[in-house]
Amino acid sequence: MSVEVGDETVFRTQLHFRIVMDAMAHPGIIKQIPTADGPRVDGLNPGSVMIAFALLNSDVSFFVSESDDVVSHFIASHTGAKPTSVEMADYIFTEGDAINDLMVKAKKGNLSYPENSATFIVDVEQMNSILFEGALKVALTGPGVEKENVVYIRGMAPEILTLMGLQNEEFPLGVDMMVVDEEGQIICIPRSSHVIVG
């Protein structure tokens, strides 16, 4: 699969980057990433593809869960980023309903370089600010949140968020998370957020 290179592509990438940064500044608030005319690859939500194009480059590394070589090759060939182990990855792509030890293995920085940590990009089925059937309630408080932001997510295992909370107990060390649904909606959960599940 090829991706066109030109002014339109650059503009779109910059737009997606701004959307992601806005979502990170407003934890738990749903933002929309345009995906209608974007590239596709089986095994990754279209919004996650757009995030990869906006954030990854030859200076960073990534890991794709489930040893998905097709997705890994797609990301590497279109962004220049380097596939690596989960322990070394700057960005980790996984599915929200996958119960695994990626969160425990991910790097969370150190006191001298807390930014040397991983960001999870997690694919889920659906998100909404209103309760719907089969959804997990996720409430966020902390910096960037006035009182409490609540989002409902289908396709997210609560264990992932519990493990994230454990990884982030020693702030500023920890990991960040971007949750992306099948329609290109995104929320960000930075390590500074306190998460209540259910």
Number of domains: 1
Largest sheet: 7 strands, mixed
Q: Give the % helix.
A: 25-40%
Shape type: globular
> Alpha-carbon distance between the termini?
40 Å
Order of helices and strands: HEHEHEEHEEEEHEEE
CATH H-level name... which superfamily?
Answer: Bacterial phosphonate metabolism protein PhnH
Strand arrangement in the largest pleated sheet: 1-10-9-5-4-2-3
* Spatial extent as radius of gyration: 16 Å
Contiguous runs where pLDDT drops below 50 for at least 5 residues: 1-7
Count of strand segments = 11
Structural class: alpha/beta
CATH hierarchy, class: Alpha Beta
Model description:
This protein has 198 residues and is an alpha/beta fold. The chain has a single domain, classed as Rossmann fold. Helix content is 27%, strand content 24%. It has a 7-stranded mixed β-sheet with strand order 1-10-9-5-4-2-3. Strands 6-8-7-11 form a 4-stranded antiparallel β-sheet, with helices on one face. The relative contact order is 0.19.
What are the defining features of this structure?
Rossmann fold; 24% strand; alpha/beta; 198 residues; seven-stranded mixed β-sheet; disordered N terminus; 11 strands
Summarize this, please?
The protein has 198 residues and is an alpha/beta fold. 27% of the residues lie in helices and 24% in strands. It has one domain (7-197): Rossmann fold (3-Layer(aba) Sandwich).
Topology summary:
Elements: H1 7-25, E1 31-32, H2 46-55, E2 61-64, H3 69-79, E3 82-83, E4 91-95, H4 102-105, E5 119-123, E6 126-128, E7 136-141, E8 149-154, H5 158-167, E9 176-180, E10 185-189, E11 194-197
Parallel strand pairs: 2-3, 2-4, 4-5, 5-9
Antiparallel strand pairs: 1-10, 6-8, 7-8, 7-11, 9-10
Helix pairs in contact: 1-2
